[in-house]
């Protein structure tokens, strides 16, 4: 098996975890199967860079002297806000030569500035997806998934999503058992599919300013299997259904129905991942009522059935 060179681009104000997370995955895979990956780091001039948290990273070499990579990995961080034109030009010239092009978090902005995402579907950190879409209309930006793979180009959301993507690439290269071994060593689960949402419903929505609406948000999270219709929730907030629906959307950025859908889906996924309960029990506990209703919700949101989701993403017991 030919050794794959993974070249990680470094720059000032890079997010350190965007670098070290994937690096640990590929380095760990090479320990499991020696000779499969050669990880190298490079900055524009070969000098040390200071991360956004203040850590100093010393690269192996300058980009001009870097080996031709199989996988070119571009991390994110504050340093992507105003990209160095020299780095953008280097990516424009060398990016197309890599067999696999990968970005973590706002590293997608650097790839976009270099024209490497035009005509492709991509993601980035949720907080910057609108900016990416606005500045680069030729890119199909999807803010929902933790990572997106479009041909040989892969983009991921923030920080830990880079680990998920790196594990998926290792699984593609070396098989699930190797990827699972790396995940166990790093004490992470090899279970998050790329189409999993970047954050939970509670984080996705804003917290309501008014106490009655905040209490309703908490009630929904604690009682996903309960009566969560607008009339019932409005009565809990002591508001008319129409006033409640309007106020909830204004203060959270999401309709009550959409919020309930997300909470129920998240609750069902968690039960599928973490318990041995049957699909029928989980459908009731999550407010779907029937397995068929839950199946439709899963197919609509995740493009997979509950049974398949559990089979693929419930972590295997560590021995």
From TrEMBL:
User: Which superkingdom heads the taxonomic lineage of this protein's source?
Assistant: Bacteria
Q: From what organism does this protein derive?
A: Streptomyces phaeoluteigriseus
**Coiled-coil stretches:** none
Kindly state which keywords UniProt assigns to this record, in alphabetical order: Transcription, Transcription regulation
**Domain HTH araC/xylS-type, first and last residues per copy:** 214-312
Presence of keyword tRNA-binding: no
Q: What is this protein called?
A: GlxA family transcriptional regulator
Q: Does the keyword Cytoplasm apply?
A: no
């Amino acid at each position: 098996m030919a050794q794959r060179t993974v070249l990680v681009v470094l720059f000032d104000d890079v997010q350190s975890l965007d670098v070290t997370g994937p690096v640990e995955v590929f380095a760990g895979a090479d320990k499991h199967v020696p000779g499969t990956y050669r990880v190298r780091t490079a900055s524009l001039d070969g000098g040390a860079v200071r991360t956004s948290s203040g850590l100093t990273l010393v690269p192996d070499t300058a980009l001009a002297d870097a080996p031709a990579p199989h996988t070119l990995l571009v991390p994110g961080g504050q340093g992507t806000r105003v990209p160095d034109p020299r780095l953008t030009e280097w990516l424009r010239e060398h990016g197309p030569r890599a067999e696999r092009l990968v970005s973590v978090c706002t590293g997608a902005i650097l790839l976009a500035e270099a024209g490497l995402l035009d005509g492709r579907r991509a993601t980035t950190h949720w907080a910057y997806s609108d900016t990416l879409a606005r500045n680069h209309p030729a890119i199909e930006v999807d803010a929902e998934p933790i990572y997106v793979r479009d041909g040989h180009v892969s983009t991921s959301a923030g920080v830990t999503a880079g680990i998920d993507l790196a594990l998926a690439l290792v699984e593609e290269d070396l098989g699930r058992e190797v990827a699972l071994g790396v995940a166990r060593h790093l004490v992470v689960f090899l279970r998050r599919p790329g189409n999993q949402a970047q954050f939970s419903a509670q984080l996705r929505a804003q917290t309501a300013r008014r106490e009655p609406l905040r209490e309703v948000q908490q009630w929904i999270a604690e009682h996903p299997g309960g009566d969560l219709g607008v009339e019932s929730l409005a009565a809990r907030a002591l508001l008319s259904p129409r006033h409640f629906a309007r106020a909830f959307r204004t203060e959270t950025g999401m309709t009550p129905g959409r919020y309930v859908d997300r909470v129920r889906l998240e609750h069902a996924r968690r039960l599928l991942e973490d318990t041995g309960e049957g699909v029928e029990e989980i459908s009731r506990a999550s407010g779907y009522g029937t397995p068929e209703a839950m199946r439709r919700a899963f197919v609509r949101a995740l493009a997979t059935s509950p049974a398949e989701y559990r089979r693929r993403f419930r972590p295997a017991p560590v021995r």
